[in-house]
Design a protein that fits this description.
With 108 residues, this protein is of the alpha+beta class. The chain is built from three helices and six strands, in the order H-H-H-E-E-E-E-E-E. The strands form three sheets. Strands 1-2 form a two-stranded antiparallel ribbon. The longest helix has 15 residues.
């Protein structure tokens, strides 16, 4: 048994990296395992269509399959029930990261 938060779009990667899924594919074949996991996801869980903002990664939790975590120095906004990741002042965006002012190298 495995306990994961899994989206349909993540099935190919899951089946290539999860030991349980790899064993199932060896035994039953990729199509059978894909069909079973797809049916399980669609039948047993609340269906959600998640849109993740720039500078975020999915961080699924029980009861909120669309939760995300901001990365690259960005922070969630608004703080409660965030919908985006922002670079809060006085920080600045530099090379797609939110950094302290004065830490961004100047272009040559």
């Amino acid at each position: 048994m495995t306990d994961v938060c899994l989206c349909l779009s993540d099935l190919p990667l899951f089946m290539e990296t999860n030991i349980v899924a790899l064993l199932a594919v060896d035994i039953a074949g990729e199509k059978v395992v894909t069909d079973i996991l797809t049916k399980f996801i669609l039948d047993k869980t609340p269906q959600s269509h998640c849109n993740y903002p720039a500078h975020s990664v999915p961080t699924c939790i029980d009861g909120n399959p669309c939760r995300f975590r901001c990365i690259d120095g960005f922070t969630p906004s608004p703080p409660s029930n965030p919908t985006t990741c922002v670079c809060s002042a006085p920080n600045v965006v530099c090379n797609c990261k939110c950094v302290a002012p004065g830490t961004c190298p100047t272009p040559i």
